[in-house]
Amino acid sequence: MIGTKRFPIVALIAVFAAVVVFSRFSSIEAADKKKQDPAIERTRKTVRMLDDIYKTTVVLITEHYVNDDDDLPAGSAAIALFDAVKKKGWHEVRLLDATGDPYDDKNTARDAFDREAIKQLKAGETFYDQIEEKDGKRFLRAATPIPVVMKKCVMCHDNYANVKKGEPIGLLSYTIPIE
Length: 179
What we know:
The structure is a single chain. The chain is α+β, with helices and mostly antiparallel strands. The protein has two domains: 1-36; 37-177, Beta-Lactamase, CATH 3.30.450. The chain is built from five helices and four strands. A four-stranded antiparallel beta sheet has the order 1-4-3-2, with helices on both faces. Helix 2 (38-65) packs antiparallel against helix 3. It is globular and about 45 Å long. The termini are far apart.
């Protein structure tokens, strides 16, 4: 008699445990599916490649061609390049401020993704992304940090003089079609 009174409680606990385990498994499975989508992984790889190219270019321009205040800043050259890439329809990349004191108002976060990316990268993440859909087409939104890597950066950005090593002062925010 005592055992039969406990049966509904035990059954209820078992059902609850099964629901929790299944829900957790479904979440893990969904996350694994997202990671395993070959198109998304290719696009992430493309972002990492572009990020390396763009940042290396800025460092090389700064290192070899920026010597005084009259020289074209590498950041300005990068923005011109980003505008040309977007105009040609390849993808969009924006240079954004993460300090709260932007060099130019165009370098501020313009949407929830940019604001969350700044938050995540300032917290130590090295890559932040999400998939968005617009007009039936999927896009990867991704962001990577920009730390101060050279003393010459302070020539144009004196507000970076006291930034801690590795701390992001900005980020690159990408919007790339997933194909």
